[in-house]
Structure formats: C-alpha cells, structure tokens
Amino acid sequence: MGLEGNIIKSDSNSEFLKTIAVSRTPTEKYYISILTDDGEKCPEPESFSHATMIGVDVGLLTFATLSTGEKIDNPKFLKISLERLKFLQRRVSRKVIGSKNRRKAAYKLAKLHEKIANQRHDFQHKVSKKLISENQAVAVETLNIKGMKKNHKLAQAISDSAWYSFVQKLTYKAEWSGKTVLKIGQWESSSKTCSVCGYKHPNLTEDIREWLCPSCNVLHDRDINAAINIKKFAVGTTV
Fold this sequence. Notes:
Number of strands: 10
Structural class: alpha+beta
Number of domains: 2
Order of helices and strands: EEEEEEHHHEHHHEEEH
Helix content: 40-55%
C-alpha cells in the first residue's frame, strides 16, 4: 500500500539540499525523504555488444526469462496472501464506521498490504541489481499493461507481477551504473518469431508453451525464444 497522510515539503536555498518530505504510511510509520544535488552527473553509458547484453521476457507463469535460458520464478506475493487479505477486508467491512474496532481491523489490513508491497519491492530490487551488475545492457519489451488488465482473468496476476515497477528499477539502476536499458515496441512478434530462422508462427495462442518451427525444425520454449528475440530486436533497432 502506498504512502498516505500529510506530506510536508520544505524548500532550501542551499545548493546541496533541495527538499525534505515527511510521509506517514497507513501503518503509522514515518519516513523522511531528503533530496540533494551534489552537482555530479550520472556516468556516461558504457558501450555494449551482443555478447555483453541480455534480453528479458517478463511473464505470469515465470517472472522473467532471460535470453541465456535462465528462468526466474514468479514469487506471487499477492496470491500467497490473498485468502488472508480477503479475510481482513471482510473484518473491516463488518465493523462500525468510526469505531475503535474498525480502526484496529483497518490497521491489520494495512500491515498486510505493506508486507506484500515490501516483499515485492525487495524481490525486484535484487533481480534488477543482478541483471544490471552482470550486463552492459538489458533489453526489455514495452508492454501495454493497462490494456492487458482489461482481461479480468489476468488483471490480478498482472498487478501482482508489477512489471512497470520492475522496469523502473532496471532503468534508474542502469543510469546510476552507466549501463543501458533498451526497449522494443509492444507490437514486435517476440514469441511468434523463430529466433533461429525468422519464421513467424501464424497462430501462437497463450496456452502454447512450446512450438516446433516447421522451417528449421528447432523446438522452442516460448519464453526463452521471446527473450532471445527481444535481445535481437533491440540490437537491430539501436545499433
């Protein structure tokens, strides 16, 4: 659950200290955010090659599949806590508005939301740090997340994966480290295109996780094939 409550901002005339923001969470934790400017710029992006970059395909069954063939499991923090979350939500709805018992129930619900958010951020920070530290460039696919959420059967799982937040972490970590994040268009056929010969599958539905290319007879894992293509497409459109 995001930060709520009053936010106090204080501007400073100092060249180093810019703003101070005080925030309170629904679980009554206080945070002080201090923005400073030391005048130093982020390092210039380092040069990269096909050998020093990696393609990343995000998904629901697997959180991320890398062009190296490695798969990172989706921890599904929201799904794991969903029953407990629904139970606490029902308890809040049954309490009298404005009562002490309702405030107690709402506090427990807020704590669980906060725990899920913290678990998700911790996981994404670790994955994004690993990818940025081990590669000169990371290629990802631009996703129409709002459009995908219109499918109510997938909306909750998409929210649980939090792909947008993950790409944000990759992006600013890359800027800090002098690395590069490349994004390919959302309409590129990364899953349907054979990464070996370029053949395009005419009817690759979501339930097909493996497919045999009729042109070169290579058996593809859908996600690994997509990650390899994301890497190839990114290089092809930026180099």
